[in-house]
Amino acid sequence: MKKYLAFDYGASSGRSIVATFDGKKIELIETHRFNSDPVMLNGTFTWDFLRLFFEMKKGFQKTFVEHKDISSVGVDTWGVDFGLIGKNGELLANPVHYRDTRTDGMIEYADSIIPKKDIFNATGTAFQKFNTLYQLLALTKAKSPVLDIADTMLFIPDLFNYYLTGKKCCEFTITSTSQMYDPSKGTWAKDMLEKFGIRTDILPEIVPAATKIGNIKPELADELGIPSIPVVAVAEHDTGSAALSVPYEQEHSAFLSSGTWSLLGIELPKPVINDKTRELNYTNEGCINNEYRLLKNIMGLWIQNECIRNWEAKGEKIAFKELDQSVIDAEPFIAVIDVDDPSFFEPYKMPEKIQEFCRKTGQRVPETHGEIMRVVMESLALKYRQAIEGLEEIVGFRIPALNIVGGGTKNRVLSEFTANAINRKVIAGPIEATAIGNISAQMIAMGDVKNVAEVKEVIKNSFPLEYYEPKNVEAWDAAYEKLLKIQGKA
Fold first, then answer.
1. How remote is the C-alpha of 433 from its chain's centroid?
2. How many whole angstroms separate alpha carbon 185 and alpha carbon 182?
3. How far apart are CA 257 and CA 263, in angstroms?
4. Over the stretch 390-411, which tens digit does the pLDDT of each residue have?
5. In the structure, what pLDDT confidence band is assigned to residue 490 with cuts at 50, 70 and 90?
6. Identified catalytic residue from 8, 76, 81, 238
7. Of the candidates 299, 268, 300, 298, which has an alpha carbon nearest to the alpha carbon of residue 285?
8. Distance, CA of 246 to CA of 452 (rounded, Å)
9. What's the rounded Cα separation, in Å, for the pair 216 and 220?
10. Of 255, 369, 434, 464, which has the highest C-beta tally within 10 A?
11. What is the rounded average pLDDT for all residues in the chain?
């Protein structure tokens, strides 16, 4: 029996999970769960990294009370964000959250220096204002004194790994989210970065996913009362880990990693960097084995979560089971929103933003919780259809089915809506996709499975799946036309 420890940090919560592997099946045991909420401080939206590291320490201690024989540990998080390390190894400032406003206008500013087409040709990365490129460009433009004294830039999971092992490196999948990686050269896009005036001397070595980077530092192991186990640079971007867990049943199927963000794409041997990919704003992100995901970033369950947070802040108690039933009971197709409209990107007052969008576009305004959530769920499903059609336009073949993985699979209403909207079979599961992918990379790195193909067979044997077939397709076709009209594309 082998055991592995995964730390999985999301945008609102994190957890430590132990996996046991008997040679055929994986079983998961959650040992610690905690909030990872960001903090607004003096007008800047930041991550409280010290608290997040404190929770990691608690996760180690709680895990080793029950599990003494852990083989390795790996960390995955969201993409793009980073910390800056000083020459003595100190964290110079709390990492800034990707939803902070400091990158407003940075895409346009970058375009004034290097045309967007050239940026895309160099990186294959979609234009999102939160990309690491625009965060560093904002610091450079503002002549940040913190950037001036920085010795090393590390993405969030690499920052955790540094404080665990003392090793400074950036893992491939997380690096590929930055819009600073050149897939044709397999390294940082330094020529482009130097034209922006961004320092390249702070960028460390890039290592492949499933790389053992070192052991937990003896002094930290002594502090926590744990052994100095190996630390693996897993597929550190949470989407990269989630994609590793997808149990495909049909060739050319797409995947949807469903959580705070919805990441919908297809896995390919090489990036697709051409005018069509750029025009449709799809991105190429790294996978294990240096392969790629061609995908679309979609706003995801962030909108639902923000609505719930808003209602609870007013003293209401929201139960997911009751909320789901209210969605089922609500009248269908009273309105459609474009979930990627910029008005939904920033936090606070989300129900009012949805109502204002409907009012502005001449639609019936949803009033009840059920109506608002039904509009959100229907609109997400329709956006998934648009993303699949865009993928098909780029790759030139039909996508027969969609595999949904991640926490969003618990939302059966959304899975049903998605099958209806895309008029294709939906296979949902596994739920704990990110942690499973994290652990799978550790199993490969430690030599306990041979390769990705073998680990996917283990996953198929280990976790149940749910299947959804399309229904009421004509009504969903009409709703899709409504979305296209709102976007000015019909």
1. 11
2. 6
3. 5
4. 999 999 999 999 999 999 999 9
5. confident
6. 238
7. 268
8. 11
9. 7
10. 434
11. 97
pLDDT in tens, 102-154: 999 999 999 999 999 999 999 999 999 999 999 999 999 999 999 999 999 99
- In the chain the domains, ranked by start, together with CATH numbers, are 2-238 (3.30.420.40), 246-429+450-490 (3.30.420.40)
pLDDT value of position 323: 95
Look at residue 121 in the predicted model and tell me its pLDDT. Answer: 98
Calculate the dihedral angle through the C-alpha atoms of 79, 235, 173, 280, rounding to the nearest 10 degrees.
-70
11: pLDDT strictly greater than 90: no
Annotation marks residue 222 as catalytic: no
Give the whole-angstrom CA distance, residue 242 versus residue 304: 21
Say what the pLDDT of residue 315 is.
96
What average pLDDT does the segment 381-395 reach?
Answer: 98
Q: Which two tokens stand for residue 187?
A: 């390294």
